[in-house]
Write a structure and sequence with these properties.
It is built from three helices and no strands. The chain has helices at 18-27, 58-71, 75-88. α2 crosses α3.
Length: 96
């Protein structure tokens, strides 16, 4: 079958706007689509009101940015997640 994988699943179409994505999710039977490439996303709802300014060795900042990039998240969000895990003891699904 054209447009399907070996399991008979369709690829997710390219959705360029929020409206397209909302329409797709509302109208599509998602069981027909290959969702294997999706990754969990951790949403941050709490407002960020405090600032932190700190100096780091350049090599550490570079390593943090590389790890954040590898995980597909902005490096400042990665730093927040690592700090949150350190004080709560809870590991985020995004930092594994």
């Amino acid at each position: 079958m054209k447009g399907t994988d070996k399991r008979g699943l369709k690829p997710i179409p390219k959705l360029m706007t929020d409206e397209q994505a909302e329409g797709f999710v509302e109208n599509a039977d998602l069981t027909e689509y290959d969702l294997s490439g999706f990754q969990p996303v951790r949403f941050e709802f709490e407002k960020k009101t405090a600032r932190v300014n700190m100096r780091l060795p350049e090599s550490l900042l570079r390593a943090v940015k590389n790890e954040a990039s590898r995980r597909g998240i902005p490096y400042q969000r990665f730093i927040r997640q690592v700090l949150e895990e350190a004080v709560t003891g809870k590991e985020s699904s995004m930092t594994r």
